[in-house]
Amino acid sequence: MTGEPMSSTHGDYLHEPKGWRSWLFTLDHKRIGVLYFWSTLAAFVLGGILAMLIRMELLTPKSDLLPADTYNKVFTLHGAIMIFLFIIPAIPAAFGNFVLPLMLGAKDVAFPRLNLASYYLYVAGTLILLGGILGGGIDTGWTFYTPYSSTTGGTVSLMVFGVFVLGFSSIFTGINFIATIHKLRAPGMNWFRLPLFAWGTYATAIIQVMATPVLGITLLLLIMERVFRIGIFDPKLGGDPVLFQHFFWFYSHPAVYIMILPGMAIISEVIPVFSRKTIFGYKAIAYSSLAIALISFLVWGHHMFISGQSQLASAVFSFLTFLVAIPSGIKIWNWLATMYKGSIKLDAPMIYAIMFLALFAIGGLTGLFLGALSTDVHLTDTYFVVAHFHYVMMGGTFIAYLAGVHYWWPKIFGRMYSEKMSRMAGALVFIGFNLTFLSQFLMGSRGMPRRYASYVQDFQPMHVLSTVGSWILALGLFLILGYLLVSLRKKPDAPANPWGAATLEWETPSPPPHHNFDRTPVPTHGPYDYDREPALV
Amino acid sequence: MNWLRELLLPEQATAYAGKVDDLFLFIFYISAFFFFLVTALIVFFVWRYRRRAPNERTPKITHNFKLEVVWTVIPLIIVIVIFFWGFHGYMDATVPPRDALEIRVTGKRWVWQFEYPNGTRTLNELRVPLGKPVTLIMTSDDVIHSFYVPSFRIKADLLPDRYTKLWFTPEKEGTHVLFCAEYCGTGHSVMEGKIHVLSESKYRDWLERGDETTQAMPLPELGALLYQSRGCATCHSLDGRRGQGPSFKGIFGLTHRMADGKDALVDENYLRESILQPQARIVEGYQPIMPTFQGLLTEREIQALIEFIKAQK
């Protein structure tokens, strides 16, 4: 690392002001980002431990480690925690909060108090959701399908209410980001000088604000049905169970893009920096994010090809699903073209970005099998789907999240981590992940249904592979957590711009001062201009 | 590339399965091609354009219209082909022929119930004639289930208060496994059925006379068979483990405390009532979730189950 190490004890946001109150009542977007970072990380660890339990149970065909009812509660909780407490908030609320205002050259987000409120709603929603476990937990699956969810026992109403509260946290973050990007850009920062991370966050925020209310209403209706026996979804009360699926996926499919767009946004930052090259097709990437955001509202029915919806509806949804594949494909080609004739350095963030390209490609391509009607009928509700969405959500979003963690860690905490350890952990994660989930594609296409506590003997070899893979994956992830935590206690301090990046967050010290910039920065160049002399290093 | 098909997909027991597999393999080849293209480019770029000096300058290439059109239009054409191919197969799978044999299917936690046109009813075991189209008219008694036969490549949800259809023409004699593919609670993973494809004449014989092999079977042995095939095993263990219902181990002759506070001796008549009117008396601490088997078992089968339970010491 070259350059002048910044003293990290004077006046930076981590150390000034002092005291726990200054953290709990902070209005600083950076501190709120950090609070979100540790909270979502804790949720991930909890969800991960549940995932390990699931894999342990599936090591043998019989349901022996966990009784079937416990297994059902464990996979429900794993899904709910990973989706609502980790993937949805992790990148926008942790990195978006921290980095977005810096990238725009702003002092904070547009509504700092709303920002803090969003964090406390997240905490409240989390406590309600996890409080439900003490009351016995729920066994509905994270999708809460009716009439199962409206008739089963357990604390369904309470936990569903937790998700309802979490929805508002997500909406608040979305509103804040839209307003921030519109109103708080530094002078000279026009729309096409925005870093692509800002575009991705913007597209995400639109979906958060437009789709989340539908989930909120749906969940309230479910609670009303359970508590007041008002017939909405349960046929015994005169309701329609398929209606629930329509409502649920009307939110939850766009939500898939709430999860992946921020991941793509990180990749669009990392690849140009470590290729030292202008991003290829800036406008194509920016517009494809918006295209994804809009088309994503029109494809929810592809979760329901076998649900009894009309064949015509299925055909239309299948067609639109293929259309939404195109903008994602365009992004992959643009990222590849950015590397062409670049000056590529394989630092940790770039290793994860490349891993993302390969894993997301598999996740995207296997989506073709599920978008096509006749193959989907065979594959839906099997492990093929489980593997597909883990490749997209974990191989895509989570690996992009790791790229972001390694990329912005020096900026957020002012410390560098061990490069050697990061490579070792990266290799373990890659091998472990593929072993865990490639085997699930195979058992899925051979007919292994999902959400099974026990299974027929034939599938055991693939389940064993998958479980062993999960151990390797967990080892890699604990290694990452280990060296990151060690770096907090150990020098070297990070320079302002360790990667030679050209976006504004690197023009302020690491970690940044409370007010972000000493004077409002004026962008004199685009966020990816690497054809000029290297930026301050 | 038959080995690939056999590696990736289950046995093909209908002609329709072959059509689905053709599309599956087509998408597989396309995906494999693009995946290797992307990885090859990554590896090549990482090696060819590795950073040699810390402050290297790179050319400013912002976009290339022709290239962008190429990588938008070619994938678009490919996915449209896949769409129509999949749509075509789906129409085949959803429009049953008019002369098909109609069988009624009811899913309930956690058994499959079948009713044939002549009134014969079975549980968890569907017998169909070889080479004849069969239409299933399906509904559910409680929550959503899904009828999934991997070797036929068919699947459809069963909804309460509504009918859904599924059809197939079996083209391979033998037994095919039936799974429940929509999560339905405790017994979801053991809500398994079997589809026996018989020759036309064997099917007729069975429909008229019932299963001859079981006619001569001693009662406890027949009971053991029914214990598995009628789904008792889902909730009632034989080793004393508590399930959704009481274990059968040593149950005969015990006195049970009922939910209404009364006691009941477990004897033949109590067992008979529990099978035919399970809601009449509920053992304390258990939920009233057992489906009734009224009309689903012959007199001999009921006796066989009672004898089987008696034998569990």
Q: Tell me the Rg of chain A in angstroms.
A: 23 Å
CATH fold node name of chain A:
Cytochrome C Oxidase, Chain A
| Secondary-structure class of chain A | mainly alpha
Which architecture of chain A does the CATH hierarchy give at level 2?
A: Up-down Bundle
In short:
The complex is a heterodimer of chains A (537) and B (313). Chain A is mainly α.
Describe the structure.
- The complex is a heterodimer of chains A (537) and B (313).
- By secondary structure, chain A is mainly α.
- Chain A has a single domain, classed as Cytochrome C Oxidase, Chain A (Up-down Bundle), CATH 1.20.210.10.
- Chain A contains 15 helices and no strands.
- In chain A, helix 2 (29-57) runs antiparallel to helix 15, helix 3 runs antiparallel to helix 7 and helix 8 (241-275) packs across helix 13.
- Chain B contains eight helices and twelve strands.
- Chain B has a five-stranded mixed β-sheet with strand order 3-2-1-5-8, with no helix packed on it. In chain B, strands 4-10-9-6-7 form a five-stranded mixed β-sheet. A two-stranded antiparallel sheet of chain B has the order 11-12.
- By secondary structure, chain B is α+β, with helices and mostly antiparallel strands.
- Chain B folds into three domains: 2-94, Helix Hairpins; 101-210, Immunoglobulin-like (Sandwich), CATH 2.60.40.420; 216-310, Cytochrome Bc1 Complex, Chain D, domain 2 (Orthogonal Bundle), CATH 1.10.760.
- At the A-B interface, helix 3, helix 8, helix 9, helix 10 and helix 11 of A face helix 2, helix 3, strand 7 and strand 9 of B.
Which helices and strands appear, and what pairs or packs with what?
The complex is a heterodimer of chains A (537) and B (313).
Chain A (H helix, E strand, L loop, with lengths): L19 H5 L4 H29 L10 H37 L7 H23 L13 H4 L4 H28 L12 H33 L12 H35 L6 H14 L15 H29 L8 H24 L1 H7 L3 H31 L5 H27 L14 H30 L48
Chain B lengths: L1 H7 L6 H34 L16 H30 L6 E8 L2 E5 L5 E3 L1 E5 L4 E7 L4 E5 L4 E5 L5 E5 L5 E7 L12 E6 L1 H10 L2 H4 L3 H11 L25 E3 L5 E3 L2 H9 L22 H12 L3
Parallel strand pairs in B: 1-5, 4-10
Antiparallel strand pairs in B: 1-2, 2-3, 5-8, 6-7, 6-9, 9-10, 11-12
